[in-house]
Specification:
The chain has 117 residues and is an alpha+beta fold. It has four helices and three strands, in the order E-E-E-H-H-H-H.
Length: 117
């Protein structure tokens, strides 16, 4: 996996070839370029997905009929639950027309925790 390096001042930006993120490091350690630069994109994507899943759960919990929806959700087969969240629109972030890939699935885990409370 390659990494493009951009320098500015005393910082170097490492941008992985696969999309998802970049990191900025001080110093000139080429080994850091190979290790940190390649791991940053997946970690950034995971952090974004976790944040969006938390927002999805909050939007679900704030629904005026959330108790009724939680009951419906709990009665569904596990493989239908993410589709239920998609249909309800809770997986969409404020201002988005469509949800990002994987948000409903990640949100499912959070809503399942609400059932256990």
């Amino acid at each position: 996996m390659g990494v493009k390096t951009l320098s500015g001042g005393n910082r170097r930006w490492f941008i992985p070839e696969n999309p998802g993120g970049a990191c900025c490091l001080s110093g000139n350690d080429p080994q850091m370029e190979k290790t940190v630069g390649c791991r940053t994109a997946p970690m950034t994507a995971e952090a974004v997905l976790a944040s969006q899943a938390a927002i999805c759960v909050a939007q679900f919990a704030q629904d005026p009929n959330h108790e009724e929806k939680l009951k419906e959700f709990s009665e569904l087969d596990s493989w239908k639950r993410s589709e239920f969240l998609e249909k309800g629109g809770w997986d969409k972030m404020p201002g988005q027309k469509e949800a990002s890939y994987g948000v409903a699935r990640a949100c499912t885990d959070g809503v399942e925790l609400l059932i256990k409370k």
